[in-house]
């Protein structure tokens, strides 16, 4: 039997994994100046493509790749309209989400009954016997371990690599970047599509590692949670990880309490991370606003009001 | 309300770094108020014709893509389109369904339109609808069955308006005084509103005499919107039409509406001209929220009678898209909201006639929106 | 620009016209009946029907509730080759369901099956607006007076759930059983209580731990609920969810036993499957359709259990549910115990809710010696019985 804290945090890591994949993807995209409000759609297409390909090929890894491809393709549509056709990012993100809802509904029917070889939890010898941290962090599926690596990797990519400088410049000072002879659009395309691929993997994690099932609309708002997490974290990968754990733990607390005979209104818990996000914004709002990529200010604040 | 003009130092609207200096900024957003182009009339007509042609081509392309997708799933696209149109428009009853679903969407769309005139982005229609419904239901619960129906309904409407205004106004206040983007806060507050409603209907407000499902008791018959004739269309559509006309009138004829447009055009210039930008932004958002709150009342009193878990889910986002589709102009907003509502209803036909999942209709809606968003701007507007 | 003014003026004019036209009262049918409302005249509802509509809240392949109802609809299609069966999946439990049913009616359907609990209000609206259409609602939730063209049907599924509880009680080593449910509606609470009572009848130590997900189908929450229960030492798990695959697979992966619900999911848990309760709607659906076509539908509450048929005692054995097949680990002694219990339930005055039964708080729920009828069972099952661990979200 596990103590409550261990169980809730382990559940938070497990349930937060898909949110974290999507959150890292959104972070990269936003750093390049493009918001994707339709991250929920990337999760959905990733979940379906992952499950469908895993069931057809028998390999969950093929499913993960398919999830990434599907997420990337969906974001490519977003990127084309936002970057080439200059459409509004928030509205386009929502449209792309509805597109994903429709596509996964139409093509997902055939896979509801399918079965797959899911990712199983992989206990890491040694590390998993560390008290408390072991069962929380090192008794997870390999996709969760992958995301552990991706958090510092994303940070390094954004803040320590040359590529990251160019990417952030695309989001902040695109005219400066252009002055130095860089093409801004390809960088932004790469960031948006790459971000979409990460969210697609998050979706595949949901279907092939977390729930072992595909159902229409099974993401149940986790993509929107990812968008909130990125706001909460001010687009910093490590804080995105912390935020995902927080949201994941809020989802895991209710069943853990109930299994111990304690009644709880789930929605009193669900609301906490959102309220906390607003509180964080109010407290650190000015600093976070200052750190926001220039490109995003334009999106969020609307050009006319400046 | 006495709000002093926000000092430039704390207002993001006055923050130099966000002022429109870079011409590409205009391209990121479709301007809330389309700028008059100073060219010759002939030229303008020619260009308008070209843009219209391209838009129509894009819409036809969207329909063709959806046809191919349907064919991939074994449906006959031509039959499917024909059935969708006949099912949705063939009878007065069917058309009535567009109004029933459309009424809250129109109000949710206007909730985006009014703030957009002042350059604000309200992504929070979803939450403002819910909070309006919650407020109206709360008043109905508090009054019980003894209250006079007319008074009860008036109080419910007031509560919905005020709740929506406060909910959205909070987002505007946070922007003015703390500097958080209203699009971020309105988005986050959608979930808070939804969770708040779910909390209430699962526990404190749950119908004790009900079937055990999470829902409030039905509001008394006297507190419901009357039906139009013998149809099942309720007065919500009339409320939505009046609201549309009112917003149009306010935009065209009142100085408040005019000032909103000035702020939306250039906040800094508006400030230098002595306009109280803070008050204008706050009031624009509050009015928007009040309209969405009214939408929540309309859905409660006209259609659902109870708060349920799925109460108005996605209606706010569809309203958001309807406003963008109409470039934030009140009368086109009315039409685009009804159009999006008709498309959603077309899903019934897809399911019943073409054996495709009802939600596939979202593909059609998305493709049409992308076509209009992406291909209805003149080249000049895109490269300016 | 005078052209621009036409739109809003027109809008106002239309709105005023609509206001003037408003006269109908926005009543639900139950209220209409209660206030002495109208009944249908002319031909009997559903008579000579050529199209039958079914709406489902979820997908037809969910290894669960909707799959069972869908299979029933296909049995109707097979039995009546001249009748067209219209089906709509993923129909939300709000007014959009009203529209979908109206759409079916406009396409000629004169018998409508609304198969989810949450479709009750929309179904009643549709029934009131279409007195010539039979509208039946799954779940036996209609209370009080009902319109002559409406009916409700269900089954006392807690009886096979009680029998499955015996298998669970015999199987558990930890004496901890788990039950994942969606909403605390009486039907669900009756199932949980029957499950615990069945287990306790063969294993007095057995306790049932309950977790709710507040959603008929959120696989993520299901997974988390199952893991929480398993981490508490639960070694047999059951559920009342619409989609059942996630929890079934989760149990199999964890090496614990699983009791199914709604439909046969034994293929998903070849080792852990004990047994379960499955709906078999075909006979009842066919009967409802036949009764309507013949012009004999009069508005009725369908009900059924092992003891009596759903219309008259002569129909004994025609139940809308089956006990699922047994899994490999169920031994002969357990099977014999279940057979015996089944015979008891089918005997006169037999019931899973045979007193004395105490509620969680120790008060007496069903007194000894008084056989409980269906209505009493439904009324009393708003609280958990002794042996269930967990709280109902307050109501």
Give a summary of the structure in a few sentences.
The complex is a heterotrimer of chains A (306), B (384) and C (395). With 306 residues, chain A is mainly alpha-helical.
Give an account of the 3D structure:
In chain A, 74% of the residues lie in helices and 1% in strands. Chain A is mostly helical. A two-stranded antiparallel sheet of chain A has the order 1-2. Chain A is globular and about 60 Å long. Chain B has helices at residues 25-28, 41-72, 77-89, 92-117, 125-143, 149-177, 182-202, 236-253, 255-265, 267-272, 277-304, 315-325, 330-354, 361-375, 379-383; one strand spanning 227-228. In chain B, helix 4 (92-117) packs across helix 5 (125-143). Chain B has a domain at 101-338. Chain B is an all-alpha fold and 384 residues long. Mean pLDDT of chain B is 86; it is low at 1-37. Chain C is of the alpha/beta class and 395 residues long. Chain C is 38% helix and 17% strand. Chain C contains twelve helices and 15 strands. Chain C has helices at 3-21, 29-34, 65-79, 95-106, 120-129, 158-171, 186-202, 219-231, 245-254, 282-293, 332-346, 374-380; strands at 22-24, 51-55, 84-88, 111-114, 134-138, 150-153, 176-181, 207-212, 236-240, 257-262, 273-279, 321-323, 357-358, 364-366, 388-389. A seven-stranded mixed beta sheet of chain C has the order 12-11-10-9-7-8-15, with helices on both faces. Chain C has a five-stranded parallel beta sheet with strand order 3-2-4-5-6, sandwiched between helices. Chain C has a two-stranded antiparallel sheet with strand order 13-14. Chains in contact: A-B, A-C, B-C. Chains A and B meet through helix 4, helix 10, helix 12 and helix 13 of A and helix 1, helix 7, helix 9, helix 12 and helix 14 of B. Strand 1 (227-228) of chain B pairs antiparallel with strand 1 of chain C.
């Amino acid at each position: 039997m596990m103590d409550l804290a261990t169980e809730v945090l382990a559940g938070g890591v497990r349930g937060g994994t898909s949110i974290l994949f999507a959150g890292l993807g959104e972070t990269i995209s936003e750093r390049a100046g493009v918001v994707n409000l339709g991250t929920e759609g990337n999760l959905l297409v990733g979940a379906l493509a992952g499950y469908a390909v895993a069931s057809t090929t028998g390999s969950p890894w093929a499913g993960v790749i398919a999830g990434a491809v599907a997420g990337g393709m969906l974001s490519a549509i977003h990127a084309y309209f936002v970057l080439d056709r200059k459409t509004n990012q928030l509205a386009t993100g929502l449209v792309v989400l509805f597109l994903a809802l429709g596509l996964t509904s139409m093509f997902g029917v055939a896979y509801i009954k399918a079965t797959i070889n899911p990712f199983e939890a992989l206990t890491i010898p040694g590390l998993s016997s560390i008290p408390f941290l072991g069962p929380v962090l090192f008794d997870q599926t390999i996709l969760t371990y992958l995301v552990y690596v991706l958090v510092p990797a994303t940070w390094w990519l954004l803040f320590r690599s040359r590529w990251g400088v160019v990417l952030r410049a695309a989001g902040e000072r695109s005219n400066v970047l252009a002055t130095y002879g860089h093409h801004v659009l390809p960088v932004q395309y790469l960031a948006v599509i790459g971000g979409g691929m990460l969210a697609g993997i998050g979706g595949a994690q949901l279907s092939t590692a977390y729930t072992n099932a595909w159902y229409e609309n099974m993401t149940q708002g986790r993509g929107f949670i990812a968008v909130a997490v990125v706001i909460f974290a001010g687009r910093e990968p490590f804080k995105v990880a912390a935020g995902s754990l927080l949201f994941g733990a809020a989802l895991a607390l209710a069943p853990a309490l109930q299994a111990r005979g304690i009644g709880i209104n789930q929605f009193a818990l669900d609301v906490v991370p959102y309220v906390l996000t607003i509180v964080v914004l109010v407290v650190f709002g000015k600093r976070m606003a200052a750190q926001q990529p220039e490109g995003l200010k334009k999106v969020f604040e609307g050009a006319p009001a400046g | 309300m006495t709000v002093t003009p926000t000092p430039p130092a704390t207002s993001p609207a006055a923050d130099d770094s966000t002022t429109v200096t870079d011409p590409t900024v205009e391209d990121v957003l479709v301007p809330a108020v389309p700028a008059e182009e100073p060219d010759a009339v002939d030229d303008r007509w020619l260009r308008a014709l070209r843009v219209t042609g391209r838009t129509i081509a894009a819409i036809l392309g969207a329909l063709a893509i959806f046809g191919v997708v349907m064919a991939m799933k074994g449906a006959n696209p031509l039959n499917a389109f024909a059935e969708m149109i006949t099912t949705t428009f063939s009878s007065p009853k069917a058309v009535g369904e567009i109004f029933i679903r459309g009424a809250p969407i129109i109000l949710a769309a206007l909730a985006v339109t009014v703030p957009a005139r002042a350059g604000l982005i309200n992504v929070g229609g979803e939450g403002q609808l819910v909070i309006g419904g919650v407020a109206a239901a709360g008043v109905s619960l508090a009054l019980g069955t003894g209250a006079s129906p007319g008074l009860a309904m008036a109080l419910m409407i007031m509560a919905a308006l005020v709740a929506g205004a406060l909910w959205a106004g909070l987002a505007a206040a946070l922007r003015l005084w703390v500097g958080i983007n209203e699009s971020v806060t309105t988005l986050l507050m959608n979930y808070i509103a939804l969770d708040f409603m779910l909390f209430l209907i699962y526990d404190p407000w749950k119908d004790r005499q009900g079937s055990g499902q999470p829902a409030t008791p039905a509001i008394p018959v006297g507190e419901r919107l009357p039906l139009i004739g013998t149809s099942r269309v309720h007065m919500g559509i009339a409320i939505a039409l009046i609201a549309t006309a009112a917003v149009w009138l306010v935009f065209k004829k009142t100085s408040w509406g005019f000032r909103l447009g000035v702020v939306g055009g250039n906040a800094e210039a508006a400030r230098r001209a002595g306009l109280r930008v803070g008050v204008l932004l706050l009031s624009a958002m509050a009015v928007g929220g009040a309209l969405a709150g009214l939408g929540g009342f309309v859905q409660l009193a006209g259609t659902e009678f109870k708060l349920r878990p799925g109460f108005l889910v996605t209606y706010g986002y569809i309203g958001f898209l309807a406003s963008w589709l109409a470039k934030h102009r009140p009368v086109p907003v009315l039409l685009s909201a009804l159009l999006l509502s008709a498309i959603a209803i077309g899903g019934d036909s897809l399911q019943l006639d073409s054996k495709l999942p009802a939600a596939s209709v979202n593909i059609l809606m998305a493709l049409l929106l992308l076509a209009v968003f992406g291909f209805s701007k003149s080249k000049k507007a895109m490269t300016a | 620009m005078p052209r621009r003014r036409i739109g809003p003026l027109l809008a106002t004019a239309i709105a005023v016209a609509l206001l003037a036209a408003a006269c109908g009262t926005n009543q639900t049918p139950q209220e209409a009946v209660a206030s002495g409302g109208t009944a249908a005249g002319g031909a009997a509802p559903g008579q000579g029907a050529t199209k039958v509509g079914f709406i489902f809240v979820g997908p037809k392949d969910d290894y669960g509730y909707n799959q069972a109802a869908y299979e029933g609809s296909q049995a109707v299609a097979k039995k009546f080759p001249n009748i067209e069966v219209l089906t709509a999946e993923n129909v939300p439990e709000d007014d959009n369901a009203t529209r979908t049913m109206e759409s079916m009616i406009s396409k000629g359907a004169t018998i409508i099956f609304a198969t989810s609990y949450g479709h009750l209000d929309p179904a009643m609206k549709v029934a009131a607006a279409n007195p010539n259409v039979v509208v039946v609602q799954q779940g036996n939730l209609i209370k009080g007076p009902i319109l002559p063209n409406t009916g409700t049907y269900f089954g006392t599924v807690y009886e096979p759930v009680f029998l499955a509880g015996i298998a669970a009680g015999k199987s558990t080593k930890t004496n901890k059983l788990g039950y994942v449910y969606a909403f605390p509606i009486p039907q669900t609470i009756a199932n949980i209580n029957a499950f615990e009572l069945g287990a306790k009848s063969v294993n007095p130590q057995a306790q049932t731990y309950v977790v709710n997900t507040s959603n008929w189908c959120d696989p993520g929450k299901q997974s988390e609920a199952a893991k929480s229960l398993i981490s508490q030492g639960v070694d047999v798990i059951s559920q009342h969810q619409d989609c059942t695959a996630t929890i079934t697979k989760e149990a199999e992966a964890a090496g614990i036993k699983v009791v199914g619900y709604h439909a046969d999911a034994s293929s998903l848990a070849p080792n852990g499957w004990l047994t379960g309760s499955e709906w078999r709607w075909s006979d009842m659906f066919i009967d409802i359709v036949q009764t309507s076509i013949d012009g004999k539908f009069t508005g009725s509450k369908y009900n059924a259990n092992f003891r009596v048929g759903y219309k008259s005692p002569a129909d004994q054995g025609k139940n809308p549910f089956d006990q699922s097949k047994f899994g490999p680990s169920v031994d002969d002694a357990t099977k014999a115990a279940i057979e015996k219990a089944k015979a008891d339930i089918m005997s006169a005055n037999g019931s899973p809710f045979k007193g004395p039964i105490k509620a969680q708080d120790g008060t007496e729920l069903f007194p000894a010696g008084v056989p409980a009828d269906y209505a009493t069972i439904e009324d009393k099952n708003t609280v958990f019985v002794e042996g269930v661990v967990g709280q109902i979200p307050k109501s």
